[in-house]
Specification:
2 copies of one chain form a homodimer.
Chain A lengths: L1 E8 L3 H21 L1 E9 L16 E2 L2 H5 L4 E6 L7 H10 L3 E4 L2 H17 L4 E2 L10 H7 L6 E7 L2 H13 L3 H11 L7 H4 L2 H15 L9 E2 L7 H9 L2 E12 L2 E12 L11 E8 L3 E8 L3 H17 L20 E2 L4 E11 L4 H11 L4 E6 L6 E8 L2 E2 H12 L4 E10 L2
Parallel strand pairs in A: 1-2, 1-4, 2-3, 4-5, 5-6, 8-10, 10-13, 10-18
Antiparallel strand pairs in A: 7-9, 7-11, 9-10, 11-12, 14-16, 14-17, 14-18, 15-16
Chain lengths: 427, 427
């Protein structure tokens, strides 16, 4: 049996997950895969820190060189996260011909070309199943199961924290701030939740997924990003009445050479497969010209689910030794002529206003929509007894910029007290 | 660029799907994968038959030997279906060292050991992604993404025809026979629908999935099978009231060395991810000790989705040339000591009776349940005005054999007019 010695960079949540899985299922993996995977060194900041697990202290090091320069270590698994020093360590490992398995979406989304080029030049593998959607094997499915497809649409719930918050808001009718505070107490949200709440995390992951799906590098600055902090219980309530659930969706579409990529709160019909993805679960809905609609659903985070992806990558890397696959993009660091990033995309819109309850308001608003080529699909007007009433529209498909202009004009109407929210709708 | 010449066995639905995909996406595949996949020969019954596609007649043959003995053909893709002559042809191809890609669940479920042994002995590959759930890459996910897991539960909607019928019955309130007749007219169900309706098709597929998931050959005779022809609109209506959707589920569970495998109509809670799998869509819900809950959803049949899986397998086979992976089971043709097939499994039950509306009936039935260690979770009793009333129970978890005995006793009660149905419940 082959013994493979690996080094871990980081020993937080994911690192301990990998350790536990190899402890628990190592013998089964050895039997089935013919591989004895042995953790030799673990890079940590503090080698004296008390750990919940009983691990030989000699395995810990605080020097990356102890791992990089160890010729016995052939695979390095990185879960430090963030850009630096993760990027530096990954490059160092690749330069030594060591294969790298990473859970780090940010470093991949920002420095993919550099990392992949270094891997290629040194005959090392670069594996990143754990970087998107934790335990869901979406990377392998894109790379190794959808080769016969032109993928033309990706819609993903790829941030667990925001899906948890939106699910709770929707099911318990409580405010965003309230649920976020609870989630932070329970450890479901970070003390600084910006990366999740404002969609950065989903943007990194979408950059990776869309790049793989469309075989073209979709850089971060090509992705529109909007978080969920503006979503209110009222939006959710009226959305439900109209048959919608709200999700933070990461969306990428390709039509010919036109590509659009965006992360924003989105209403989807309640019978859409993504609508029933609750709590912190993740799901990726893909459309390909051969496969049709495909959805992958599961745990997007957590020590064991993410560890599952890491260990799977380590096993794949061992079997692929000497012939690692590299990703082929139609474009490199720059957009090629073949790819055109679209920003004036089309969606339906949910528009929620507070207006004065006067005759003619609806007609004025309808007039503005018409002027900007936005046509209405449905209207809800609630309660005629009060001075101020909610007025909700759902439009047919309209251009992003047309809607922006229409909303600016609507804001100027005397009888429009407030444009409460504008939420895009996908089907 | 490498050119790979392949032979197709069969040119029905799936065969033409493969042809279309290679026509349409061949150049992209060549660019990305470095493979020029060329169909050289197609085995058909009638080489003179008129075909919808414009294909060089010289490609067709009605002799398997033209393909088996062609040294240029390195991969044979089989979609004849059924046991013979598919088995014979696959074996012949493997014996010549040709890799086989098959969509044939029946031949695999029945002759897996023989096929795999022959492949191994001749250094040929055996790939079967398309054999279960069409375009959904469940085989590769089991084999190459869940290696770090002990899979302990599989629940699948893996027959599109029955899911289509149950969805229509549920949404339109029409009878089984009615919808089946329509489905046959529309080509969604076979003229002889037995294999779908009575669960044989799902049983073949479950045998494959459970074998891969548990790393133990689960033979067809170890699988309990029950079809959907006994499900009525009333069952569905009362189920809905209780918060359930009905699905033909293929279920396999493993606890220690105990394995249960069964195909039967099943009630699942409406908020279960499988409950929203509508129409002819398929989905496989898996629980693993590391990954947690994972679900794959998509098109389980059709020329292009199944073709997507076939072409993906062909590409994988090319990349794996010289080191195809073979499946390792804890047992071979026979059950080993490590594996114990359980038939007296535990589920909750939905029991629908028609009883005489008399005092004491409920008490008598409750008494019988109690005697057989079945405890009730909920009861619905409808309408007190008529002589005969429906009486519906949902039980807590109970043993299969205990329920069988209880039902036999209940049938003997004077005031029980009919045991309308007994449907298992999973959560």
């Amino acid at each position: 049996m082959e013994t493979v010695k690996i080094g871990l960079l980081g020993f937080g949540n994911v690192g301990t997950g990998v350790y536990k899985i190899l402890q628990e299922n190592g013998p089964e993996i050895a039997h089935r895969e013919g591989l004895n995977i042995e953790i030799k060194k673990i890079l940590v900041r503090d080698i004296h820190k008390r750990r919940s697990m009983d691990i030989d202290k000699a395995m810990f090091t605080n020097s990356i060189d102890d791992i990089i320069n160890d010729p016995e270590i052939s695979i390095v698994a990185e879960f430090i996260g963030g850009t630096e020093p993760a990027r530096e360590y990954i490059l160092k490992a690749l330069e030594k011909g060591k294969t790298v398995v990473t859970a780090n979406k940010e470093v991949l989304a920002k420095h993919w070309s550099e990392l992949e080029k270094t891997a290629r030049e040194n005959g090392a593998g670069l594996y990143y199943e754990a970087s998107v959607a934790g335990g869901i094997p979406v990377i392998k499915v894109f790379r190794e199961s959808l080769q016969a497809n032109r993928v033309y649409e990706i819609m993903g719930i790829i941030n667990g924290t925001t899906n948890y918050i939106l699910t709770k808001m929707s099911e318990e009718g409580r405010d965003f701030a309230d649920i976020l505070a609870d989630a932070q107490k329970l450890g479901y949200a970070e003390p600084d939740p910006t990366s999740d709440i404002e969609g950065y995390d989903a943007m990194y992951k979408l950059s990776i997924l869309a790049s793989l799906g469309f075989h073209a590098r979709i850089h971060l600055d090509s992705i529109y990003r909007e978080g969920i902090s503006g979503i209110t219980v009222d939006d959710i309530k009226y959305g439900k009445e109209l048959g919608f659930a709200v999700k933070l969706l990461a969306i990428a579409k390709k039509q010919g050479t036109n590509i659009e990529a965006r992360v924003h709160p989105t209403f989807i019909p309640l019978d859409h497969p993504l609508a029933s993805v609750r709590d912190s679960f993740n799901a990726i809905f893909v459309k390909g010209d051969s496969v049709g609609n495909l959805m992958l659903y599961g745990r997007g985070a957590g020590d064991l689910p993410t560890g599952s992806a890491i260990v799977s990558d380590i096993i794949s890397a061992c079997h692929q030794k000497g012939r690692h696959a590299y990703t082929t993009f139609y474009n490199g660091d720059k957009l090629s002529e073949e790819i055109n990033i679209v920003t004036d995309w089309e969606t339906e819109f949910f528009v929620r206003l507070t207006v004065r309850d006067k005759p003619g308001v609806l007609a004025k608003i309808a007039g503005i929509f018409g002027k900007h080529d936005v046509s209405m699909a449905s209207v809800i007007q609630k309660g005629h007894s009060r001075e101020e009433v909610p007025l909700i529209f759902v439009t047919h498909r309209a251009k992003e910029l047309s809607m922006e202009k229409a909303i600016n004009d609507i804001k100027c109407l005397d009888d429009v007290i407030k444009v409460e929210n504008v939420i895009r709708v996908e089907r």
